[in-house]
Amino acid sequence: RFRFPDEYFIAKGTFSGAAGMFLRWEIWKRLALQPEIEYLYDGSRTAAGVERRHSVLAPLNLHLNVINVENGMIKLYPFIGAYFLYGFSMNKLDDSSAPPQRFVDTEWGLNVGLGLTLMKWQIKYNWQHSLTNLSSVEGQKVYPSRWNFSVGYQLW
Q1: DSSP string spanning the chain?
Q2: pLDDT in tens, the chain (156 residues)
């Protein structure tokens, strides 16, 4: 959802989806670095209506393997990192007469989450919070915030 901290209303979240790829580098038995690239379709329900955006998202996370058994076949790890997002399209999905929000194209933010690897399957739940004010309107603040659940498969 898009957060408007200075407004009287609270924007509601909408279902979002993403697809992408990741690489995982084991730095040490307990530490891994994972860059990702994703296509993201997200949005929010605001006072102006439902708005959606198409973006490319690039998170980079550091994983701390607190459980690493069976030669890495089972891992449990909290992770933290940063992300960069480039939004290339924004549209309204309803018939309201309010104009669409004007947002900047780029966003920087933080990731925090928990992951589980079972053999080659990776299951993660994380929170992403923008550090960038997306509004291009003077004096208005808009900060996206996302909760994500993801499933991935490591090819090698």
Answers
A1: -EE-TTSSS-PEE---EEEEEE--EEEETTEEEEEEEEEEEEEEEETTEEEEEEEEEEEEEEEE-SEEETTTTEEEEEEEEEEEEEEEEEEE-S--SSPPP-B-SEEEEEEEEEEEEETTEEEEEEEEEE-S--B-STT---EEEEEEEEEEE---
A2: 666 666 655 677 788 899 999 999 999 889 999 999 999 998 887 767 778 889 999 999 999 999 999 887 899 999 999 999 998 887 765 555 555 556 788 999 999 999 999 999 999 999 999 999 888 778 878 788 889 999 999 998
